[in-house]
Task: structure prediction
Amino acid sequence: MLLSKNISMFIKKYHKNISKKCIRFISGNIEEWKSTIGLEIHAQISTKSKLFSGAPTNFNNPINSCVSLFDCAIPGTMPVLNKKCVEAGVLTALALSCEVNAVSMFERKHYFYSDLPAGFQITQQKKPLAIGGKIKFNVFKTGVHKQPYSKSSKIKQIQLEQDSGKSLHNEGVGRSLIDLNRAGIPLMELVFEPDLTNGEEAAALVKELCFILQLLGTCSCKMEEGALRVDANVSISKSNAPLGIRTELKNISSLSAINHAIDYEIKRQISILQKGGEVINETRAWDPLSKKTVLMREKEEKHDYRFMPEPNLPPLHLYVNRNVQNTYNLIDVPSLKEQLPELPEQIRQNLLKSLTPDTLAAITSDLEWYLLFCDIIKNGKHREPQLVAKIFISEILSLLDKYNLDFTFCISNQKYIEELIDLIQAEIINQPTFKKLLSELLNKPNKMPKQIVEENNWFIISDEKELEMICLEILKTNPNLVKQYKAGRKKVFKKFLHKTFLLTEQRADMAKTSKIMTRLLS
Amino acid sequence: MENMNKLLTASIKEVSQKINAGDVRSSDITKAAIKVTSIIKPLNAYITITNETAKKHAESSDSRQKDCSLLGKLDGIPIAIKDNYCTRSHPTTCASKMLSSFIPTYDATVYQNLKNVGAVLIGKTNLDEFAMGSGTIDSYYGPTKNLWNSDVFKKFYSCNSQAKEYVQQNTDAHSWHIAGGSSGGSAVAVATGSCYAAIGSDTGGSTRNPASYCGLVGLKPTYGLVSRYGLIPLVNSMDVPGILTRNIDDAVLILNNVAGPDRFDSTCFQKKYIPFDIPDTIDISNFRIGIPKEYKEKNLSPEVQECWDEVSQYLREGGASLSTVSLPHTNYSIMCYTVLNRCDVASNFACYDGMEYGHRSDEWNSVHNLYRKTRSEGFGKIVKERILVGNYFLLEENYEEYYVKAMKIRRLISDDFNTVWNNNIDLLLTPTTLTGAPKYNDFISMDNQAQCSVQDYCTQPANMAGIPAVNVPIKLSKNGLPLSLQLMGPPLKEKELLTVAKWIEQRVQFPKIELKDLSLLE
Result:
């Protein structure tokens, strides 16, 4: 009954305006080419303090105000591992079905850069926190896929590491300025196997990862703040041939950019290969203005990071085996596993009983929406999930879109929305009244919907006798239309309905009206 | 203050009693100690004399004495700290141009601990640049000279032994004796009576070596027993804060006040440290002492060998059982150390880029040019060589061949000791250095690498294994120079180690030096 045309608006959000602007490279047959994508994702761990120091991690603090002595590599200072970061890493690893290593090691990765005060980054490589996981996600593109399809990617490893600072280059003055607030912020690097084939899948993976990380509370996933950054390795090969030379797309910072940067890069590489050229192993960046990937670094000699063990940190021991005693009070992996919330796969499995697949895909594509949805259902067990979900996906989302409102609008008006849902579910109001009442929110009403309905007499008219009388009245006053209809111009039927709608001050139950009108006209 | 000259070279216990009783004020002792620093200026033991701070510390000690609220035996006692420990508001140079302008904003834990119990900081002592050496000759601030056989000694000091008058055969300006290193400044500071104890650091013997040449007790505690936080690192997995004193009881007192867990150093033992005392009457009949045959190095001087034999005989007479043991991998220790040292140096020194602190070249072309110029101006030749070689060892293609191999050898060296301890050996008695203090011009006829490989031969393995070791001065050589021996023990067996050391101390009665009664000190 409700506006199903808007159903995939959620998913469409990040496709906006893009496909039409993409340059077409290829004229020939794409089928013979196979694209392979592997992602490396840096997720900032949501903790109050940094990975190895007590400095705060707040994004909005003034420049260079969250820098401990260790963060600026003052000689003699030493790293002290933040337990919360390890727990967040372990939770994430468990949620992604990784094997958590009982012993992991920190290493130094050396390179000179002005926003890396120590001259090395403390990371994990040879013996990371966790290995061998998997993420399952749904891919769904409006107009391309009728139904979401399921896809999965293997996770090679999850490692803990420090973020670097930021260099701000002022070309005009020829100076670079350094902000070390970000230096030492905890990161989880998730290295995925090259299991994807296009930008759409990559974006869907990232979206699902965000859902999981937000659900766990281990990362805010605010890509606009750099809390989640994606590198993508893209290569093209002929079907059944070994992987081609890859390019690396660095620091892609939005879902739409992931999608389009990768698709652009696939097309660019195919176009080079079709002309008989060679793809060069290089690092490229996505320029959202020109909608192109641009060269960041020429192919350089392989950088030797001169890895060595971090000598100031003992190996990280975790408690993984319940059969032995946790004598040293190590971080307890089995009990963290018990603390895991219901994960998306399970959530979807449960919701599939009450939601259609497309509604399900839409409502579980964003954690905030999903949680609000759950809350509304929880607050009123009588509420039909499918109806609630659809109202969200279509009505509420379009309102937010239209007036450029953000999600907090829903939270602050949750009670009002709940009552509104109840009114329409109980068929006390019709859909146009619903819309009217929803828009009323913009005027910051001090009344609840039910009261507004009562005061204005906006109740639905669904009494069949009453409706039949109204219909008869319409037919009587419009003999010409009746004549046209009987002569076969069925299109005028809509006019009858519209007139009924107006006559009842938009309160008629239109489904019933339509039935009655059909009967009367036959 | 006629006794002041005697008091300056007395034991801490004695002075502490006098302070406690109100016989002498800390500020008087401190004033005298500062005067000594000026008469020993030609020896160049100090980089910075912190007289203002010393005055302040001493005055607060005075007032605590008046209030009967002294903080313990170290309250009011002048001490010195090697200039590679961070001291808030005092320059911490590491004897390098690179840090010549560096004034830390924090205190190293070792210094903090000493300050907490009322110790008075006299100054920051000289060292080889970044502690890379064993002579205290490679300092940006010039070499430190040994007190023994120096003009300063002749002029201001007397010795209670049947002092064979040393005849200077060579009047060459470079024929003075080195103090040993790299904590040579700390050693000379203590030997001259300008302070009662000094903190050194010991990575390959840097505390024990100058202790041996200067006739002092030089204790290298078990790795992890004393916090490294604030000690500017050389080789993180071997660096240990060292203690230089004129007798064993003083060393115990200092150890009791600096040892223990530190939340800023993750490589520290987390177990609470239990302070100990060593009685004056010692029974050594239960001790089983090993004499490792590999320490009879071909360059071992007959005089040191004689010393070794004598003391072995004393121990036997005292009831201890002595046996010859083998530490078969001793020979590889220096080479192994060379590799691991260079690797850590390459890594630890990457932070000196002139961005956040330290020397910064006036170069605005590019960041990398700035680094290049800053680092070539700021570091001395030996530091640069080690950085270069370390980076070579850490290259991906060399890593297995050098770093990994060296780590394996390190394990073998460490296992050598474990085997000995498992065979019911309590302690090992060895030379500390192969000779008495060399003359400067003989010493510099070797390059740094050769110097270290001779100097560190007997001391280095203890750092590899992380075990405690102490230098005990035994007697004067024919030339009037101190000759010393080393005791090594199993991890955390400081008490046993120092018990036997004290027994030896009592038995050999190493000559005591005293300041002549000088008007200078009045």
About this structure: The interface with chain B takes residues 69, 72-81, 108, 110, 112-114, 117-120, 174, 176, 178, 304, 306-308, 311-314 of chain A (CB under 8 Å). Confidence is low (pLDDT under 50) at residues 1-24 of chain A. The longest helix of chain A spans residues 255-274.
